[in-house]
């Protein structure tokens, strides 16, 4: 009993490439088509999601601009303090800090604190407490850390309020004092927002100014851009999944239906398996379904034809075998020499009949395979017919019935296999000669008309009744003359001839003779080939 599942199909071995090395196979085995479609679309979105990490360069650009701004602000504030009267220095410091939302601290040459804008006026900003922020802000900070880890961002020092007020708590002040230039530092506040400090000299007394800004807008700009990009990617991701599933359904579901039908056809448990043709689909899947359905129908017809042929063969062989067995059994019981001689003649005739049947059955069974391997070439059907007729006339044991060749108008060029078309003509001539009475004539006429080439074989026999004209092309069916010896023909000749004609995209039919005289006319019709065809 056949298994309930389809047999695995072995994968072909990789073909060797030049140099004897095997080419690598990039096929993904064991992965369904739906998963592949989803993977292709998700990978494309994943590449788009990679733009999250390019936002780090956007953040760096914003910080670079803020460094320039911090440097300029510190230097402007230092200049303002230098130009202000000593009595107004603290007032100027507080005013600049409040207006620009900075924390300005002024230190003397020894590093002692002179003034702090946060103490001179209400602070214009305060650091956010992470423990009191909403959950989505904590998630945003976690995403910031993840991006920093992936892109390999350097570790940034955390900002902590120094316990003492001296300049020693700020290394940028020492570097600015040594270099006599502005130094800018970056730190992270507790909520991971940038804290930018700029230290710059003030006047010529060794005083130093430190400007501190909490650049929360930089972090907010990056997070806003990341959020907008995330929304776009999320929507695109959902749409891509829906479209991928839709595409997978339109492709995978009909393919699975075809697979199920193919398995049922292979198992052969249900002759009425309907292979879906998908007539509503005009794409490649629809073409595949209809081609698969037509192929299945053709295979069933071929199987039915083989079964019918096998049954016909068994039936045709049983008759001569039964006759031969009866003759041999009777011969053992008969003593009359004359009767034994008659029985021996019957046995010999049955042996010849069986031999003829086996030969023609073998030819008929091989005809389809021979035609599938045949290479069609350009040939002149009239010349081919003339050669066949000439060869038959030159035989030592040529028929008493003469064969006359005539050629009509037009070019008789066709594409086909010369040996198979010769076989068709031989079978037609054998049939015509067998039906022709003594003294009769067989005529072969070739002509062309309206893009078709015709070859007609006419005989002077009794003709074939209209009701029998299609039946004579069936295997083992024969309407023979009364005078012909029984079993002289197997009934396969015309069936083979029509098979060859149809393989050449032609037809083979039986008509009355156009002259109205007794007899039959078998007409082979083939498509005409152009002279410029190779």
Stretches where pLDDT is under 50 for at least 5 consecutive residues are 1-26, 483-488
Order of helices and strands: HHHEEHHHEEEHHHEHEEHEEHEE
Content-based structural category:
alpha+beta
Shape: rod-shaped
Terminal Cα span:
51 Å
Question: Count the strands?
Answer: 12
What is the number of independent domains? 3
| Radius of gyration, in angstroms, nearest whole number | 50 Å
Task: Write a brief caption for the model.
The protein has 534 residues and is α+β, with helices and mostly antiparallel strands. The chain folds into 3 domains: 51-226, Beta-Lactamase (2-Layer Sandwich); 275-373, Helix Hairpins; 375-534, Histidine kinase-like ATPase, C-terminal domain (Heat Shock Protein 90), CATH 3.30.565.
Describe how the helices and strands are arranged:
Blueprint: H1 33-49, H2 51-83, H3 89-100, E1 103-107, E2 113-116, H4 117-120, H5 135-151, H6 171-179, E3 183-188, E4 194-202, E5 207-214, H7 216-267, H8 284-333, H9 337-373, E6 377-380, H10 381-393, E7 403-407, E8 413-416, H11 418-435, E9 442-449, E10 452-458, H12 493-503, E11 507-512, E12 520-527
Parallel strand pairs: 7-9
Antiparallel strand pairs: 1-2, 1-5, 3-4, 4-5, 6-8, 9-10, 10-12, 11-12
Helix pairs in contact: 1-7, 2-3, 2-7, 7-8, 8-9, 9-12, 11-12
